Every structure is written in structure tokens, then in C-alpha cells.
Amino acid sequence: MQAVRQSPDGCPALVLNADFRPLSYFPLSLWSWQDTLKAVFLDRVDVVAEYELEVRSVSSRIRLPSVVSLKSYVNHARKPAFTRFNVFLRDSFACQYCGKPDREGLTFDHVIPRSRGGKTTWDNIVAACSPCNLRKGGKMPRDAKMWPAHTPRQPNMFELNEKGRAFPPNYLHESWHDYLYWDAELES
Ligand SMILES: [Zn+2]
Questions:
Q1: Which of 6, 7, 160, 184 yields a CA-CA distance of 20 to 30 A from 117?
Q2: pTM to 2 decimals?
Q3: Distance separating alpha carbons of residues 113 and 120, to the nearest angstrom
Q4: Which of 108, 126, 144 is the last residue of a domain?
């Protein structure tokens, strides 16, 4: 495949679930143009919208998809992976003790300290800013008089996806707007 005019590398496709909602809001589900065309040829997606830009194959030209939807629905009821990113997303990237939003310097805090037998699990890990984490140290919540804003528990993918809606990316192609309903837009 060869680009006819400009580089297609700046032309990712927004990937929608079979219900036409984004597969993921944060990070926003985007595929490279190569992955997108592969999925089109394998008949795994429908093309919903296209860029102006065309690429040329041996026998034909094809406009790059800007929005595609999956043919089979991905079930969001499944359990998300227990990762740093997903814990922070569940906690809306804010310290669970002082409420301060902090996209860069967040840390993990064990609500029941490890020294008291606390596990590294969804129900015992919360996002905390460094000052709060230091202040709480190895103390139990009652001794430190610090309780997390929300009782930590395992979210499902649907809940994480809903959380992700609060974090719009910097760049949005115009053809994506119909499929993205950011909280920020609803407030204005
Ligand atoms: Zn804090």
C-alpha cells in the first residue's frame, strides 16, 4: 500500500463497539490505518466514515476509514485487568484522601497497610497523592484518620469506560464527534 498524497500515519480510525459507542474512551480506542484496513478486509468491521485521503493497493484505491464499528459486540461486563492505569482511572485520577486531581504524580496506597496484612488487590488499593501517601504511611485508616473517598472495589469494564468519558483527548477528528459525548461538552 502507498499513500496517494499526504502521509496516512496521522489518520487513525475511531473504533466503535457494535452498539456504536466507542470501544474505549480513555485511552480513546484508535487503530492505525494499517490495522483498520486489515480489519476491513477481514470483514470484522463496518466502515462508518472516511477521510478524504486515499491509499492505493495493486488493483484499487481506497479511502481511509475514519470511523469503524465492530461487527461483533465486545462485552464490557468482563473484568478489567488490575493495572496501575485502571486503578487510577477507577479513582478518576484523583487522590482518594484529599481529592486533589493529579494526572502525573499519583501513587498507590494500601488502605490496610501491607505491614498489617493488607493485600495488593482492587479492594485495598487506592490512588493517593505523594503527600497523603507519606502522611498515612504504614498506619491503619483509623489511626491516620484518613479514609478513602470511595470504598475501593473491582470495577467492570463498563464502569471504567464511563469514567474515561471525563478525559477527552487533545485531538478529535470531526467525523468522530457524533460518537463521542464528552462530559466537558455537556457542561458548556
Ligand atoms: Zn492527597
A1: 160
A2: 0.77
A3: 10
A4: 144
